[in-house]
Amino acid sequence: MNGSLIERVSGTALVLPGDDIDTDRIMPARFLKAITFEGLEAHVFADDRKEAALRGQTHAFDDPSRRQARVLVTGRNFGCGSSREHAPQALRRWGIHAVIGPSFAEIFFGNSVMIGLPCLTLSDADQVWLRDAVAKDAGAVVDVDLNAMTVTAAGRSVPASIPASARQALTSGAWDGTGLLLENYDVVRAAAAKLPYISGF
């Protein structure tokens, strides 16, 4: 993902109903013991999925028809609760490349932008339309265009919103701090050589 410009996300989607879905549900605390983010995707909504199975229901993240989904359609205040960055990391590693909802918790939103996961909002009416369109058709392709600032699905295009600073970071590649450092490593090395605690002088 280093240096990637994120201008468009296109793919099928899944709907996760409900408001105030917190990061403890997205990524339960017992899975935070690992020292890397690798493998977290296997535990996305682990408790919710288990509870749904016990009720004889299929959680959205266990629906085989949605396994290739790239867009997540959510409820209000998604990602609230603790500030754990593991939540957006797990979603991104599962395969989600964009999240669309009425609103997002501030820290979750910031953590998402830092890994190149755009979180966009729609008007209430357009959010209901998108949720319904996606829910009834597992094959419906949702196209998120960060240049045009639109979301398109089922033959309809609606305006989307994201803070200008986040949009600029995503579409310019500035979201990827590590990638920017590596692309300009000679400059980094030259600057480091002037620091006494690195150069030894």
Describe the protein's architecture and organization.
The chain has 201 residues and is of the alpha/beta class. The radius of gyration is 19 Å and the shape is globular. It starts with 7 loop residues before the first strand and ends with a helix. Helix content is 35%, strand content 14%. β2, α3 and β3 form a beta-alpha-beta unit. A 7-stranded mixed sheet has the order 4-3-2-1-5-6-7.
Shape: globular
Major pleated sheet: 7 strands, mixed
Distance between termini? 37 Å
Radius of gyration: 19 Å
Estimated share of beta-strand residues: 5-15%
> Structural class, from secondary structure content?
alpha/beta
Helix content: 25-40%
Count of strand segments? 7
Low-pLDDT stretches are: none
Strand order of the largest sheet: 4-3-2-1-5-6-7
Number of H- or I-type helical stretches: 9
- Roughly what is the average pLDDT, rounded to an integer? 90
Order of helices and strands: EHHEHEHEHEEEHHHH
Write the layout of secondary structure elements.
Elements: E1 8-15, H1 23-26, H2 46-54, E2 71-73, H3 86-94, E3 98-100, H4 106-113, E4 119-120, H5 124-135, E5 141-145, E6 150-153, E7 156-159, H6 164-172, H7 177-183, H8 185-193, H9 196-199
Parallel strand pairs: 1-2, 2-3, 3-4
Antiparallel strand pairs: 1-5, 5-6, 6-7
